[in-house]
Structures are given as C-alpha cells and as structure tokens.
Amino acid sequence: MKVALAGNPNSGKTTLFNALTGKAEQVGNWAGVTVDKKEGEIKKNLNTSNVQITAVDLPGAYSMSPFTSEESITSSFVKNENPDAIINIVDSTNLSRSLFFTTQLLELGIPVVVALNKSDLTKKRQTAIDVNQLSELLGCPVIETVSTNGTDNGLETLISKVVEVKGQTQTAPFNSKGVNMSDKKSVDEFDKKRYDFVKGIVAKVEDRKVISNVQTKQDVADRILAHKWLGIPIFALVIYAVFSISQTHLGPLFADTLVGWIDEVYAWAEGMLGEDVSPVLTAILLDGIIGGVGAVLGFLPLIMVLFFLLALLEDCGYMARVAVVMDRFFKKVGLSGRSIIPMIIGTGCGIPGIMATRTIKNERQRRTTAMLTPFMPCGAKLPVIALFAAVFFEDAAWVGTSMYFLGIAIIILGALIVVRITGETHVKSFFIMELPEYRIPSLKRAVITMLSRGKAFIIKAGTIILLTNAVVHLMQTFNWQFEVVSEGVESSSILASIASPFAILLIPLGFGVWQLAAAAITGFIAKENVVGTLAVVYGITNFIDTEEFVLLSGGESVASVMGLTSVAALAYLMFNLFTPPCFAAIGAMNSEMENRKWLWGGVAFQFGMGYVVAFMTYQLGTLVTTGALGVGFLPGLIAVGGIIGTVVYLMIKGNEKADQSIGISA
Ligand SMILES: Nc1nc2c(ncn2[C@@H]2O[C@H](COP(=O)(O)OP(=O)(O)OP(=O)(O)O)[C@@H](O)[C@H]2O)c(=O)[nH]1
Ligand SMILES: [Mg+2]
Predict the structure, then answer these.
(1) Pairing relationship of beta strands 128-129 and 206-207 according to DSSP bridges
(2) Signal peptide location in the record (predicted)?
(3) Which of 88, 280, 299, 503 is the most exposed place for a label (fewest CB within 10 A)?
C-alpha cells in the first residue's frame, strides 16, 4: 500500500520519512526544504503487518489551493495518485495553523492518520493536548510522535494505525460541499469559516502554559542576532570562525593524516608498477590518477568539518536569523526573503540550492534566484579556496570569509541589475520569514549531514574527477600526432593547444597561461577539477604538507611553480568562483528557469561578472601593490567596458519599460 506524508512546511515530514524508511533525505530547520516527492519502503521493524508499505514524502503545504508550485505538487499528488492512506504530520507546537490543512485533507475521503509531531516540545513547554478528544473531533486516529527520537517515538503505533484504516472511507468534520471553488471571494469567506472551526477545536483540546521566561530569552537573543545592523558583523564573525576552524585548525589536522595515507597508496602503486611498465602508463596512473585525485581528496576533511559546523548553525536556528537580516537587503533589490533559503542551501551544493527556488511564486524572482544562487561558494569550490588561501595567503581564514561575503554582494548587485533590466522595479514583495525556536543543535544530525556530504565528495572524486584528470594527463602527454611531448616543448601538447586561445583572453586578468586556462575550463565539469588539473599540469602530487599541521607549508614553492603574484592568484580564485558553475548546476538552472533567454542571459551574466571582478581585482591590486597597471590593461578595459556598457544599455531599456507600465496603470 501507498501512504502519503502531508503537512505544513517545517512540521517534520522529512524527518519522519527518514525515520520510517531509513533514508537520509535533506532536513532543514525552516520551511521549504523538500521541493519534490520522494518514495521509500517502510522499515520492517516498524511495520508488524505483512503488507508492504511505501511512504511518499511531499513538500510542505499550508492549504490545498495551488498557491505555490510545491503546494500544487502536494495537492495534485494527494488528489491524483490516490494513496491508500495519508499521514498528516501536524506540528503540535502550532496546532491552530496546522489543523487548517488537516480539515482540508479530511475532505478527500482518503483515510487520514494524524501524527501529532514534535510532542517532545509541547511536553517541555507544558502544553497539554487532549489527544482522545482531538481524535474524536477530527474523526480520525491521532498519534503523538517524536520523529527525531530513535526509540519511544510513537512510530510503530502510527504505522499500525495506518494499516488499520486502510480501505475505510474518511468522513470530514467540516465540509466545503456547495462552495464555488473557482470564485476567490467565496473561497476566502469559506476559509474564514474553516479557520473559526479550527480555532474552536484548538480551544477545546489545548491547554497552554505561558512560559514567559524562555520566551524573553529567545527575544533578547533575536534582538541581537537578527538586529538590523549588528546582525551583519555577527554573521561575518561566525563565518570567519567557521572558516578558521575548518581550514586552518581542525580541518588540516585530519587532512594531514589522510594525505599521509594517500602518499602511502602512491608509494605502494609505484612499487607495484615496477620498472617494466611503460613510463607513459606509469605517469598516467601515478601523476594523472592517484596524484590528481589525491590532491582533491586531501581537502575532504576540511569540507567535512565545514559542513559539520554549518549544520550545527542551521540546526540551532541561527541561519534562519541570518535570513531575516539579509531579507531587508534582498527586498530592496526586488528579491523576496524566500530567495535566501536557496542561497544558504547552495553553500552545500548549487544544485539543490537552485532546485529550492521552486518555492518562489513570482517568476522573475524565481529565475533571478536560480541565476544568482551559484555565486555562493558551494562545497566543490572549497578545495579551490583552501588551496589558494594556503599557497598564497598563509592559510588565512579571511580568504574564505571574504569570498563568502563577496558572493553575497554580487548576488545583491546582480538582483538589482536584473530587476532593472526586466523593468519590474515597482513589484514589491511581502514575505515574512518564520523563525524557528533556538535549540541545542543535534550532533547526530550534523554528523549525518557531514557524512553524506563526504560520501558525495568521495564518489565524485572517484568518478568525474578521476576521469577528467586521466584525460587531462593524456592530453598533456601527447601532441596531435600522438607522440609523447618532449621536455621543453610542453606547449605543443593537445591540452596546451586547446587551452592557449582561451589563455589569451585571460591575459588582462593576470593569469593568461594555458595551464591555468585549462584548469578553469575543467572546472566547468566540476569545480574540484581546478585543483586536480593544477596538480596534474604542474606535476604536484599533493598540496598538503605531511610534516607540519598546516596546509602547504611548502606553499612558496608551489606559488613559484604557478608563477602568479598574490594579486593575480586572488583574481584567478575569484574568476573560478564567480564565472558560471559546473554543467550540472547549469542544467538545474535550465530546468528551474524554463526559459532559454533567461538561461543564456544568466550564463552570460555569470561570465561577465567573473571577468569584470577578476579584471578589477588584478589591475587595481597590481596598481596598489606595484604602482603600475598589470599587463593587458587596455584590451581588458575595452572588454570590460563592453560588458558593462551592454548591461547599462539593457537596464536603460528596462527602465523605459517600467515607466511605460506605470504610465498605463496610472
Ligand atoms: N524537537 C523536535 N524537532 C523535530 C521533530 N521532527 C522534526 N523536527 C525538526 O523540525 C525541523 C523540520 O524538519 P523537516 O523534516 O525538514 O520538516 P519538513 O516538514 O520536511 O519541512 P519541508 O520539507 O520544508 O516542508 C528540523 O529541524 C527537524 O529536526 C520532533 O519530533 N521533535
Ligand atoms: Mg521536507
């Protein structure tokens, strides 16, 4: 049988789904995390019956009306796929809002079992809910659950009730028969009646104790952390701490051990191959595959520590406050506060971040968010950041922090530009972010997030990155006649001849050599490739020093191999971070934007932004540090002038459109 999990956003559907099925779908301490339905079998130890039960996790919805697109996923699933039963997850700390949706679900005729979730929180707050009476008033079973608990969580009872109600016809305590659903006014009126009905139920079954003490503490914390101005420096400090722990303290400590192991694998493979194997093959295996993949894998501990910390921040409720702080700026540039959640998710991986834009109703806001989310430094970009911070800036945590904030600044600027180009400056957004309560973050959840990120990273390193490194190594070893390139004429290799024309374009940015161009290009396949390719083209097998607990104490020698000034290195880092994301993320942009013009416009914008930022960093930085402009200033200036000119032209045209539309409405 099939059972659907439906309920309000953030009520704990996915947590319950994971507990029921043993899966590890993404959970978040805010609304709008799940954007697509997910299926899984209910575990045998919870299901004592002999029928197999498939659970379907759905996006959260506040009502059955097709309001935002995930709400229509939810209502169309429940209406069309005809599940045998519905588990309605009700957030017991927010009974009156949740039951609105419950009364609508009950009208479908499909048997409903209510999971009164987060009952640990109501107990803690001494809110008493009369479960039996609630069950009677609704006309369906009500089971208290704590889906975050491993045991004593009510799940077994819940499933046995689901099996029990199968095949029954649900009756509804409140009926919308006879209401004209296509007429907005009558629907609104009816919703009001429904709400009164729900209020009546809540008044009967719920007995709340007001614990003002806890409430005031939370309010004080909010007044500081979510403060208009204070919130920003606090956030900057928090992010700085995250980068310094993950990239200069705890991360390198673990990385060191890992790199020791990778070195052993290298030595072992070298011994196994012996003298008889051809040197070309040996080089591909050792330097191309083990060296290149190892260079990327060495950063795994840094990434895992970073995600562990970010998960803690999110789980304790802090990230939702950050969203509130940012909301103000986002609204000014025509985005809604809803755009922030995709961006925060995007710091893990851009793809789920872009997919999370689906919860945004306004089309322009949704497309703009999908186009700007990749500017956040995702997990794959972290090795690149860590590498450059280590080689050129002595592991400074400010490098990562400033890339993070620069990403945010670019997003705000980008949104401003887009809203002008589309001429929708008059559209105002009204979104109120709901704040979850502060709580002690769960280490278990943070470890799960960390492990699943780590696993994804290892899989990527063993597949895409391994393959790219091998191909890059081959292309570097051979020329177009398939002869081994001899020393001194490396620029005749296949790789060099492909990358060289692109390198010319990069001269004004300070890094116009084919090796760096090749690494930037492979970065579009996966951003970790930037590190892997640099390792291969410069013949560096690992970037992490095993003698000292730091990334790259031999950084200077690596820096001199690359032949970059630190200003040019910073420009190169920015270029890799702020040009378009990997192809997979561009694919996600395509499916969320559903519009070719927006997609290509977005990718062009990302290229333009990366180019302009790198150009300004390199030229201004060189001017400040050496007193003279960098190479290729004039051609670069012409290119950048062309990019900025195009954007300004489009903005002026958009402005005219805006004036016209206001003129019509006036
Ligand atoms: N204390 C407590 N917290 C819970 C419980 N169930 C879920 N949570 C927390 O509630 C938050 C939301 O959980 P999710 O499972 O992502 O909620 P969801 O309903 O899937 O949300 P959307 O996908 O956004 O609609 C997470 O921070 C969970 O850890 C519970 O029984 N008790
Ligand atoms: Mg969910």
Answers:
(1) antiparallel
(2) none
(3) 280
Q: Whose CA is nearest to atom 16 of ligand 1?
A: 27
Residue 141: helix, strand or coil by DSSP? coil
Which DSSP state fits 150?
S
pLDDT of residue 666: 39
pLDDT band at 546 (very low <50, low <70, confident <90, very high): very low
Statement to judge: residues 352 and 449 lie in one domain: yes
Phi, psi (rounded to 5 degrees) for 565: -75, 165
DSSP secondary-structure letter at 433?
P
Q: Are residues 9 and 129 in the same domain?
A: yes
Probe residue for ligand 1, chosen from 5, 10, 121, 315 as the CB with the greatest number of ligand atoms within 8 Å: 10
Q: Which CA distances in Å does 526 have to 258, 408, 463, 532? A: 22, 22, 11, 10
Percent of the chain past pLDDT 90, that is, above it, reads: 52
Complex ipTM: 0.98
The Cα 57–Cα 16 span in angstroms is 9
Closest CA to 168 of 86, 263, 246, 227: 86
In a domain, 502, yes or no: yes
Dist. CA 28 → ligand 1 center (Å): 7
Q: Are 556 and 596 in a shared domain?
A: yes
Q: What is the CA radius of gyration of the chain?
A: 28
pLDDT in tens, 181-217: 777 778 778 888 888 999 999 999 998 876 666 667 8
Kindly report the CATH number assigned to the domain that includes residue 28.
3.40.50.300
pLDDT, mean of residues 58-74 = 67
- For the stretch 484-527, pLDDT in tens is 988 888 889 999 999 999 999 999 999 999 999 999 999 999 99
What residues flank ligand 1, with Cβ below 6 Å? 9-15, 27-29, 31-34, 59-60, 117-118, 120-121, 146-148
The strand order across the sheet containing 85-91 reads 38-41, 54-57, 2-7, 85-91, 112-117, 142-144
**Count of domains for the chain:** 2
Cα(437) to ligand 1 centroid in Å equals 12
Q: Please state the pTM of the whole predicted model.
A: 0.82
Element (H, E) at 301: helix 300-315
Domain encompassing residue 376: 232-661
189, 272: one domain: no
Whole-number pLDDT of residue 279: 84
Q: Which ligand is nearest to the CA of 30?
A: 1
Q: Do residue 510 and residue 592 come from a single domain?
A: yes
DSSP 322-377: HHHHHHHHHHHTT--GGGHHHHHHHTT-HHHHHHGGGG--SHHHHHHHHHHGGGS-
- Tell me phi and psi for residue 38, to 5 degrees: -130, 140
247 vs 258: CA distance, rounded Å: 15
Distance between CA atoms of residues 220 and 226, nearest Å: 10
Tokens, residue 287 = 């330097």
